[in-house]
Structure formats: C-alpha cells, structure tokens
Amino acid sequence: MNKDTTTEAPRPTDNWAGYYEKIGKQHLAPLWEVMSELVTPQPASACRPHLWRYALAREVLMEAGGLITAKEAERRVLILENPGMPGQSRITTSLYGGLQLVLPGEVAPAHRHSQSALRFVMEGSGAHTTVGGEKTLMEVGDFVITPPLAWHDHVNDSDQPMIWLDGLDIPLVQFLDASFAERFDSDAQPVSRPLGDSQARYGANLLPVDHASGSVVSPIFNYPYARTREALEALRRDAAWDPCHGLKMRYVNPNDGGFAMPTIGTFMQLLPRGFETAAYRATDATVFVPVEGHGRTQIGDAIFAWGPQDIFVAPSWARISHSAEEDSTLFSFSDRPVQQKLGLWREERGDTAQRTT
Ligand code: GTQ
User: pLDDT tens for residues 53-102?
Assistant: First the structure.
C-alpha cells in the first residue's frame, strides 16, 4: 500500500467543532465521540441500590388517602422512584414500581392498557381485583397478574385499607412506543366467571383437555401466598440449598413452563435462619420484597437491613448477598424474561464473582 494515500487526505483535527456543526446540519454525528458510552464493557446503569422502608412509605400513602380518592386519581399510587433516575417513574431502568392504596368502599375504575402489571399484596384482606371478567380476592403475599390489554378494576369491599405493590413494564413499553390505554364506560366491569375459576381450571396441575396453549401470559392470575409458602415449606425438608439463592422458585405459566408474565419474571425464595448467600449478580435489575423474616442484603457497596414489606432494588450487574436473621421469604421481580428471549441475560455466581474483580 502506498503510505501517502492514507496520510495525504486532509484531517479536520484542528476544527472538530466546525466539522461536527457541518454534519449536525445533516442530522449526522460522529460515533467516535460516543462509542465508549454506547458500547460499555459492562452494564453502566443509572439505577441505584435503594430500600424503601414500608412503615414510612405507608404513612405518606395513607396521607394521600385523605387528599384524593381512588376514583379521582384513577389509581392512587405513590411511585417508587429509583434515586438514580428521579422523575422518570422507574424503579429499575426497564420497570416501574408503585404502592397502591384502595380504601374501604373505594373503586379504582376499570381500564386497560398494553402494559402488563403485577400486584404483590402488602396489606389488607379480602378486597378484590377483577381481571378480564373474573374477580379474585387479594391476601397478603398473593401475586396477581393483569395481562396486557385486560380490563381491570380494583374494588375494596372489605373494612380495611388494601395496599399492594404494583410492578409494571411501563418504561419498557415506553421505550418501544407501544402504549395503548382506554377507560371502561363504567367503574366496574361485568363479572362473567365464578370466583376461583382460573385457579381451578389452570392452577391445579390440570388443564382443560382442549386448552389451546401458547399464550405468553399465564391464565392463572392469582398465585396465592398460602400455596407458595406451603411448597417452600415442603421443599425445605430436603432442600439442596443453592449457595446464591437459598431455595428459590419461579412463578410459572402452565401453558409453556415459561415465566408467568411475558415481560416480568417473578420469584419467591426462602432463606432459612442464619443462611448467608454467596455473592451473585445478573443483568436483570431486581426488586425484592421480604414477606416474612428479617435480614440484611448487600448490594454493591450498600447494605440494607430489611423486614417484612420493605422494598429494595438491586441494579443490573450489582453483586447481591443476603443474610437471614430469621426464616425469611423474599418475593422478587425483574425483566429477566425479556433479556432471556433476546439472548442478553447473563449471571455470575459466588466465588467466581469474587475473583473477577
Ligand atoms: O392498577 O392499573 O401503579 O394502570 C400504574 C398504572 C397501577 C393499575 C399503577 C396502572 C395501574
């Protein structure tokens, strides 16, 4: 190769600003200025580890109960804003979290949207949500699904406040510009199926003989805590404890054995008293909700002491280790189904993780 052909071309190094301005007029930009921010050697997340103390959040949520009705608000929710992404309505980069309050006698009116929602019940008993024509009663620790575009209204006909954690794929749907939403023309949708129908039809290790599988959303829309807890308790007798997770189970869609929701993976784990997990990290930022027990979790450099109903979040690729002071159960959710479908999900376990730093 003739050396001169590469060195002769005029180089604009003395006038980058002028060059950038010129190409900017054509809506062009130089990759070399941004390459290292776009293609990072490791996840570079704005998401921060954080813990919301339930008692404190509850106090101000109850205050909102005196300021606005569920109907006025459409949904009376305090958004759990990740401190690294203020004003963006995100608990992780891809997911939204909020605490919703429905007071006795209130209705959060029927609507539907493209976004999938999970409810994880924090407090109260016997209020119901109606999803696609079927009511389900909500008890503490229940995991309830609202599939994309399913009509849903929440009604509290009990005599106690009902509070649950909402987890939605709002940021993900926003990123994809795929949001649709509409209001139903009355507060409550008609109920067309008896209580417990989906549970019996799809949630009893049976499926109707001609059930056409294939939906990406589980037809079971309430996974009661009582049954989950019972399974964990039975398994602990002969548990092969995972050094990173204790005993960790995944909520499943009986159609295909996949995750219960298309965009959000949900999990419940048991950490027995005294258990200390080995460090673990994965690319799915995760929201944890202790249901029973007390313990501590280290996420990167942050250490959080937690008890029932607290909510804490671990960013993508931050090292997580838990220690349980009592028998503890932790619900968690993340965007793992999305990452796995896209071939992006990655994890690093235990000692390996320690050695790679
Ligand atoms: O209950 O339908 O926290 O539509 C945010 C958006 C809850 C809901 C939220 C929603 C809902």
Answer: 999 999 999 999 999 999 999 999 999 999 999 999 999 999 999 999 99
Give Cβ neighbours of residue 22 (< 8 Å, ≥ 6 apart): none
Phi, psi for residue 235 in degrees, rounded to 5: -70, -30
CA distance 69 to 235: 43
> Which of 263, 265, 251 has its CA nearest to residue 116?
263
How many A from CA of 74 to the centre of ligand 1? 8
CA distance linking residue 335 with residue 285, whole number of Å: 7
- Ligand 1 centroid to 114 CA: how many Å? 11
Q: Is 357 exposed, middle or buried (0-12, 13-18, 19+ CB in 10 A)?
A: exposed
CA distances from 182 to 110, 111, 131, 186 (A): 9, 6, 15, 12
**pTM > 0.90: yes or no:** yes
Measuring from each residue's beta carbon to the nearest atom of ligand 1, which residues come in under 6 Å? 75, 77, 98, 100, 113, 117, 152, 166, 168
Q: How far apart are CA 219 and CA 212, in angstroms?
A: 11
Structure tokens at 18: 């002028």
Task: Tell me the domains of the chain and their CATH numbers.
Answer: 50-356 (2.60.120.10)
Q: What is the DSSP letter of 277?
A: P
